[in-house]
Design goal:
By secondary structure, this protein is mainly beta. Strands 1, 2, 5, 8 and 9 form a five-stranded mixed sheet that branches. A four-stranded antiparallel sheet has the order 4-3-6-7. Strand 3 and strand 4 form a beta hairpin.
């Protein structure tokens, strides 16, 4: 059974990023459709997959991470407007039978991602 998961790592502090708002959208020609909104747990993950089973269909998706709010809550002072505020990652799902893991590694001034396992 396929599923979509994520994990957020705070590379500025060297650990998982807890209490980050994560929004998942399905992207259509008409725009974005919000599918779910979650908060990351103490391990920087969601307690359950963002999508799984029949809800995971081929298409284009976008994860949006409220990383600017997270660093502000941690007391990190950055100039306004923030260099990174909401980090979007747009990706495709071709085979809904697979596990798609889309992690975010972030600091107040940089981020990266990859297809994990």
């Amino acid at each position: 059974m396929g599923r979509l998961t994520t994990h957020i790592l705070d590379t500025a502090h060297g650990g998982p990023a807890a209490n980050v708002t994560i929004r998942l959208f399905r992207v259509h020609d008409e725009g974005r459709e919000l599918l779910t909104e979650r908060l990351s747990n103490a391990d920087g993950r969601c307690d359950t997959p963002l999508l799984e089973g029949a809800a995971l269909i081929p298409g284009t998706y976008e994860l949006e991470f409220a990383i600017g709010d997270y660093f502000a809550e941690k007391g990190v002072v950055v100039p306004e407007p923030r260099f990174l505020d909401r980090v979007p990652i747009r990706f495709g799902i071709a085979d809904p039978g697979q596990h798609y893991h889309v992690p975010l590694l972030a600091s107040p001034f940089a981020f990266s991602t990859y297809r994990g396992s």
